[in-house]
Design the sequence.
């Protein structure tokens, strides 16, 4: 007695439909053969995620990582649904600390959602959760509102610099901070990440590291370079460590900025009322560069790499020498990257010359 075994192959259209369904579910045929790995709990994954973050990102996400641990520490990632996240996001919105710059908690919710996505992206990369099972992919950030920041007028900028230079317990440090941000339009992370060996004293360039891992060489005036060098020497900043320091040699943190603007606000009520901060200096400098020179130079000056302005931006890039030329007009000082014959600016630039306070 013999037995026959017949194998049947599904029709081609059935196979195509199955593959399409797997694709829509974020799966591959190999996923069906791979044993399922239990998703970790938030208490297990949050410390691992926190360890991978840069200091600035860790500070931004820190509050929300703590919240995930406190609220859902014993829950696995695949046990939380979109309605759960929506409910927690609403809690973030309603309990956010209110200050003069508050805008209904939208920024806090945006950071919360970014934190959740970061956690689940880490889980996906480790193979602990499948894309199809990732509720973070369905979360929507709130619409970002138009910024209320504007370019600070020259006379008000002079008042800010005057208060910084005549009040407080470290006038030299505060004046240096303001000059650094006004000249370079850098972010706080760029200033805090600056190290003595990031100073090219010959060409008057500093190496800035800012958000999202971006970095660039930025021109500075000979005056600012001299002050940065003197600051590093006088406060004994190690070559490979943070440059900006207190008199006792300890590196400053973002709290120094908070202290500075609170003090300025006590003397200039409009600063406190409008919530003026270091980022307003970035707006001020970049607005002037764009109005006086061009959008392309302002984009390079800011260190932006986004192509949101359109394809044309790919062909009208500015270079380091053009940024140095703009800085030369801003500070009314010659720059080593600009030859004497190149230092003469168009009438529009010279007529809009804006010397630093």
Sequence:
């Amino acid at each position: 007695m013999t037995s026959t075994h017949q194998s049947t192959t599904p029709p081609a259209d059935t196979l195509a439909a199955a593959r399409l369904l797997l694709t829509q579910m974020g799966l591959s045929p190999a996923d069906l053969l791979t044993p399922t790995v239990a998703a970790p709990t938030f208490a297990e994954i949050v410390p691992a995620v926190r360890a991978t973050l840069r200091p600035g990102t860790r500070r931004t996400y820190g509050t929300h990582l703590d919240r995930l641990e406190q609220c859902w520490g014993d829950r696995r990632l695949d046990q939380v649904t979109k309605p759960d996240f929506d409910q927690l996001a609403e809690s973030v919105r309603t309990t956010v600390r209110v200050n003069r710059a508050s805008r209904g908690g939208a920024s806090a919710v945006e950071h919360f959602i970014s934190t959740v996505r970061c956690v689940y992206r880490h889980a996906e990369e480790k193979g602990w959760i499948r894309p199809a099972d990732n509720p973070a992919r369905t979360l929507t950030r709130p619409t970002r509102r138009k910024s209320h920041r504007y370019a600070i007028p020259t006379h008000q900028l002079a008042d800010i610099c005057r208060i910084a230079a005549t009040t407080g317990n470290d006038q030299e440090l505060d004046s240096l901070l303001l000059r650094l941000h006004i000249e370079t339009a850098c972010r706080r992370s760029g200033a805090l990440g600056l190290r003595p060996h990031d100073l090219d004293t010959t060409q008057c360039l500093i190496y800035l590291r800012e958000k999202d891992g971006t970095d660039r060489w930025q021109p500075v005036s000979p005056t600012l370079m001299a002050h940065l060098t003197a600051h590093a020497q006088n406060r004994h900043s190690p070559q490979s460590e943070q440059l900006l320091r207190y008199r006792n040699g300890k590196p400053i943190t973002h709290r120094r900025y908070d202290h500075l603007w609170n003090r300025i606000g006590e003397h200039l009520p409009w600063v406190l009322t409008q919530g003026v901060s270091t980022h307003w200096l970035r707006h001020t400098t970049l607005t002037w560069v764009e109005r006086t020179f061009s959008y392309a130079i302002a984009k390079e000056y800011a260190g932006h790499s986004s192509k949101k302005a359109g394809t044309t931006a790919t062909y009208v890039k500015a270079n380091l020498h053009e940024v140095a030329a703009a800085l030369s007009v801003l500070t009314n000082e010659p720059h080593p990257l600009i030859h004497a014959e190149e230092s003469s600016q168009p009438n529009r630039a010279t007529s809009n010359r804006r010397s630093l306070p």
Residues 42-138 form one domain. The longest helix spans residues 106-125.
